[in-house]
Amino acid sequence: MKTLAVKTMALLIASGLGLGAGMSSAAESLQDVMKRRNLTQQDLLAAAKTYTPSGGRDEFLAFSSGGQSGQVLVYGVPSMRILKYIGVFTPEPWQGYGYDEESKAVLAQGRIDGKDITWGDTHHPAISETNGEYDGQFLFINDKSNPRIAVLDLRDFETKQIVVNPIMKSEHGGAFVTPNTEYIIEASQYAAPLENQKFYPLEQFNEKYRGAITYWKFDREHGKIKPEESFSLELPPYSQDLSDAGKLVSDGWSFTNSFCTERYVGGIEKGRPPYEAGCSAKDTDYMHVINWKRAAEIARDDSKIQVINGHRVIMMETAIKEGILFLIPEPKSPHGVDVTPNGKFIVVSGKLDTHVSVYSFEKIMDAIKSGRFESKDPYGIPVIGMKDALHTQVQLGLGPLHTQFDAKECVAYTSLYVDSMVAKWNFCEGKLLDKLAIHYNIGHLMTMEGDTTKPKGKYLVALNKLSIDRFNPVGPLHPQNHQLIDISNDKMQLLYDMPLPLGEPHYVVGIDAKKLKPAIRYKVGTNTRTDSEHVGKVRAGEEKIVREGNKVTVYGTLIRSHITPETIEVEKGDEVTIYLTNLERAQDETHGFTVSTYNVHASVEPGKTASVKFTADKEGVYPYYCTEFCSALHLEMQGYLLVSPKGWKPEEGAQLAAANYTETDYKNTLKKVVDTQAVIDQVVGYITSVNYKAYPEVVALMEDATDQLGKTQEAKAKHEAAAAQQDWEQANLWAEQVWQYQVKAADIGLRAKTFLEQKGAK
Amino acid sequence: MKTLAVKTMALLIASGLGLGAGMSSAAESLQDVMKRRNLTQQDLLAAAKTYTPSGGRDEFLAFSSGGQSGQVLVYGVPSMRILKYIGVFTPEPWQGYGYDEESKAVLAQGRIDGKDITWGDTHHPAISETNGEYDGQFLFINDKSNPRIAVLDLRDFETKQIVVNPIMKSEHGGAFVTPNTEYIIEASQYAAPLENQKFYPLEQFNEKYRGAITYWKFDREHGKIKPEESFSLELPPYSQDLSDAGKLVSDGWSFTNSFCTERYVGGIEKGRPPYEAGCSAKDTDYMHVINWKRAAEIARDDSKIQVINGHRVIMMETAIKEGILFLIPEPKSPHGVDVTPNGKFIVVSGKLDTHVSVYSFEKIMDAIKSGRFESKDPYGIPVIGMKDALHTQVQLGLGPLHTQFDAKECVAYTSLYVDSMVAKWNFCEGKLLDKLAIHYNIGHLMTMEGDTTKPKGKYLVALNKLSIDRFNPVGPLHPQNHQLIDISNDKMQLLYDMPLPLGEPHYVVGIDAKKLKPAIRYKVGTNTRTDSEHVGKVRAGEEKIVREGNKVTVYGTLIRSHITPETIEVEKGDEVTIYLTNLERAQDETHGFTVSTYNVHASVEPGKTASVKFTADKEGVYPYYCTEFCSALHLEMQGYLLVSPKGWKPEEGAQLAAANYTETDYKNTLKKVVDTQAVIDQVVGYITSVNYKAYPEVVALMEDATDQLGKTQEAKAKHEAAAAQQDWEQANLWAEQVWQYQVKAADIGLRAKTFLEQKGAK
Predict the structure, then answer these.
(1) Does the predicted interface ipTM exceed a cut of 0.90?
(2) Cβ contact (<8 Å) for A276 and B562?
């Protein structure tokens, strides 16, 4: 059969890609399909605007908060296909996130009060900016429930850092960046004492509870937040909400709104009206206006700050005295505060008002410069009169929440939660332009690069909350619904319903895909969480197992289709660390690794070194294996962890069973190798006959195939040496190994051939 | 402003849905769009076949393993939109899975050797069957790394049970069901001693290491596996792989294939050829043929079994003696073993062979009945000759893996891993019909209900492993690629590329969506993990906080937009349990719950009771809140956990600060209430003027709105009583609460109105 198999292989390859390649008869016409599926012409147009053919690319990538999943997700626009969930605050085993030692160290940075926090309530992602435009280098995201900010590197889409807010007990208003990513802004939500683990009764709410805003210093070169250069402002015990940084003319300032400036304390269980009644009684709340550039200078002055929980805080009194903190009334329980692309206006939506309120930065500065304040709040913060700051108000509808901007001048879009609509309007002239019904209860919305100085227009995504009746039912917990809307014309057009399978995204940012340049593979031996050379790095042939006392350290490697070492022998109670370096060069040849029932897992992309660690606290035999379907012989990419009783010694002369292969077996295997080489030569012949060098993907595949074939040399030397000694067992097995390398090379070669044929290489 | 806001509201509603509703001008023609997006006519046809307009439903639902994510995902076919990731082996906070007490109890069932396992390597989902057809009631899925099976209930898409395999250390071959779901089949992968925590050196591999197959008894009435009625067969130390149960004529039998029947032990670190060489040296491995119906009888006989780790095992010797276990050679390292819909044939693909091998059940039975065996394996198991069992072999291509079936008689599809193709062929006549190139390296494939007695045809999904060059790059770890293929015509047509954002799915099952009838909401007070009344259930008004020693138990409720209670006062060190019942009746009005930094989270769907539990081991003030964007006043759905020092007593006479509302405030609020009621009456007027009762969704929404309005009565009584006592503070706040209920009723009413207008209600 061996010979037959190889012959057939040759035959099939020589005859091209088989019967069906490139052929396809459409029995149904377009009209038939439209009729069968009840599609209108309008549906077909929407299909054409979103459908992305096999292998096609999306024009924009959207980075979405994963809500209570604690993750970030990435999807393409306009295809609305989700490309990746990235582990951020919640362990996620596919990525090894929280299951290998390197990512555990990232998650450990997010410990609070000495304890692991194994999830997050992510809300608002922000892409790093240069001159107010997305630069596609980093992504920041906050955790509302456990006040934290995470830093993701968009070179490899991995989470690199988590910082814990040192003074907040809750936050909603993160992450927002300043125009050159000098700082990442994070505002508290529910007021609480700033000191850690400090109790004050609710009767002292006005005196002892506080809000705050933190400016996290970002070190772009190292891709890390520097907590020691970060600072906060103490704020009144209002419920601070979202923020936005000024840009262009308003650069240097930031704006943070708030609700429940009533400072109401509920207590429905004691007969008091609930928070929802007391927190929405007043007609206006306060927008906070902060001079962050000046604040940053003040924060460096030891005499002007208080250190709380080891963190530098500018107290309200100082902020007032230094003239860096002001308030402006804003209508009823606002959510979004969004600076227009030109930096001239700040748009606020009061969710219990029907208007958007457009504030003029120029007017605000005028009022501040001339000391024109209408009052002070209970904490002495100067309050600028609404009429002195307003540019215009526009009546849009019920429950306005959040605003984003178009590439077209002066055009904005605001989500209307209660109306379940998107409103298109002109913020210069204060004019409503269009409205579109969506399904249902929209929270945030997002236009492409729509919160930058250079919005890209084209598409808008409505982040709808309740997807009842939109999709096939999947139980009482429904997916959310992101709806894609075409905004390239005067009238908005609904294009696509996209279910969100996991979490409730609160906000999304969309970036021109061309701005992203993710890495193809890592430099061999990289600790990808620290971006440095890994202590466990080894090259092929350098693998070793080191024992020091009861510490066993394995320096291993992974390559199609074996793990080196294939046996790890330890004693019960040993502390085992297994370092694994992926030696592959093909860009998608990821291997995974786990040891059965020891609750560890690593995803090891090409070049990466990752490690798992555990105490071998139970005797027995535990298989380990590659968890990623990496090659035809993937299931054979296995090994055994053997945990023997303490002091166990092998029986003298014990030997592994032999298969008793004969010289005939060996010769048959050699014949198979020769036949297979002929097949490979055919494939290589085709590839080199066309302009394959014009395709970097194919060049990479060829390198990879050459790597695999290169390995045959060593195996060949081994089978020939064994054959010379008439050790047919070893000779046949090493000859089989030569064949395995050939199979892998053929696999890669065929992939390259298919690629070239489909790209029409000549 | 209040009055203005309400007036505007009335105006907007009266004028219908605003400017843009229902209107949409397509500036670009279909031809323009096709040109701009480089779409061919064939692309447009594929778009029409997959695009699902807003609100449209999918014809089939696919349940996919989430691979190393440890989850199950659900997506629609043909839209290929992922609807849900369901938490199974890995904690997932959006669902509260592993973060509330009820789901923690499910995960705790999966503990191994006394330790938590916080992930799984899911492989093969199986839908429960009745008479060999999917019945849409339950889903089963296995964990390769930590041998376990999970049971999901498709009434609510929740994981209800996890069972740990008592004798395996690794498994790949689960889950597969018998035709009436009498048993769920799970086969081991890498051989190991069957005894728990038992060490034997590899030198004793042939003698002490074993494979096994477990038949888990399923109790359909209770939706649970019964471990005490389940049993296993001891098998040789081959690497058993996938299984399938016989059906119709072959019902009562099951088939399990295997690789590495060489029993090779690697050791590349010691100079031995790796597993991949030694495990693929032989030309054939063994299909195991097992009479499970007879085995189930034998397993009940104490004299015929061994109890290993508390589990009933039929040892090989007994199985041979009783004539329930046979082997048949099958070509080279097979993966899939798939019984044809008529039950007559078993299709095996050897991944290092180029053929599929079709075995005849009739011939196998003939051989067994006549005792025609060609040999015995090293353990004495009778081996049926390949030629005595084969119906036919068909040459398909390189790396055949897995086969599924069409609604068309005798038509099968097989994945070709190395070729990166799907082959369509006829298993009756042994004829290749068509081949289609996919991208790339396909593992399993799936046709609609394609592993049942009544396949539905129409679509095929290719589960491709390496998605290089298919999507926008998202870093070195790439998504997998599921490709949708139209199989309704003679020639297969590729329709859609679907990235998998999380995990590497190994297998998918697709079911006619009409067969699924998920529940709309739970009966109030349901523990959804046990499907019984929850001990923490309370109804509105029955909320309470109970203290017993240092144990504090909160019986709370959730409803738009407040949590009862809004304050929980405990002392440091108290053990706190918070039960929460969602009182909503709207089907998608889920609330979430967390206590900041205490690392707990619950998702509480309407009717559900869930609980979180923690020790209040740190003093201070910890906000709690609803984590699901549930209503306009969602952010105000908050409360405080106050952890005071031990023995702390409130200061005498301490009072919460008052807002000092006046009679005028109260009167203004009352006016707002009157105006808002007029708006509501308008909406109700519209709804009742049409045939809204024809729409169950609207009837449910109306019930819900009526619920909200019903609550105004109590709040009204309160504000009137307070006003009578000239307590304007309480009077105004309770009047505000009346308004809040009105706002929610209006929100629901508007949603119903929009729904009716869009459905064209008359």
Answers:
(1) yes
(2) yes
